[in-house]
Amino acid sequence: MIDQIKGYVEHKKATSIVLFINDFGLKILMSKISIDLLPLNKEKTKILTYLHVREDILDLYGFHSDLERDTFMLLISISGIGPKLALTILSGIEPSRLSSHIIDGNIKALTAISGVGGKTAKRIIIELKNKFIKVDNDSLGIEEGSEKSKLFEDTFNALMTLGYKSSHAKEACLKLEKEGELNGPVEIVIKKALTLLIS
């Protein structure tokens, strides 16, 4: 698979660009958000890629970041969501916000994205919620298996069980860690987090 390419953006369209590499122009399908971030004819640009191959299709998709490409790959792993719809979804919302809506089970926010109906939104949440929670937890920068990691995870999960949104639960846990309050019995830490959330 072509993992990444570098070249100059010669032309931009609504859903694609033309990237020139040594006088050779490649059409690359991209989200509107990523296209808007690219410089036009100014400097050499690196684009992460995914080559979609079928009997009658050979399309090259481009991404501005690893997070966008990883999110795209998760979306197309869902039955009924192809690369074109995945790109449409990523054109309507940033990957970090999309993951938050999926973790929170926010169907209303997902159906507000162009091309996403109620059934598709539910399918996305059902199939990706646990995967995004794992990615979210893995990106917290806490050493896995440590006492602090276990306390953070237990507190985070307890807040989620109590009905708090993942983004709010994560923010409270991170604040406790920053203030040096992420220690002691988990019951006490949960109470500290709840105090932050209701204050």
Give a quick rundown of the structure.
With 199 residues, this protein is of the alpha+beta class. It is built from nine helices and five strands; from the N terminus they run βββαββαααααααα. A five-stranded antiparallel beta sheet has the order 3-2-1-4-5.
- Order of strands in the sheet with the most strands? 3-2-1-4-5
Radius of gyration, in Å, reads 20 Å
Report how far the terminal alpha carbons are from each other: 51 Å
Strand content: 15-25%
Which oligomeric form is depicted? Answer: single chain
Number of strands: 5
Class based on secondary structure composition and strand pairing:
alpha+beta
Main β sheet profile: 5 strands, antiparallel
Number of helices: 9
Give your account of this protein's structure.
This protein has 199 residues and is of the alpha+beta class. 52% of the residues lie in helices and 19% in strands. It has nine helices and five strands; from the N terminus they run βββαββαααααααα. The protein has helices spanning 32-37, 66-76, 83-92, 95-104, 107-111, 118-138, 147-161, 166-178, 186-198; strands at residues 4-12, 16-21, 24-29, 45-54, 57-63. Strands 3-2-1-4-5 form a five-stranded antiparallel β-sheet. A hairpin with a 2-residue loop joins strand 2 and strand 3 (24-29). The longest helix has 21 residues, at 118-138. It is elongated and about 65 Å long. It starts with a strand and ends with a helix. Residues 140-146 have low confidence and may be disordered.
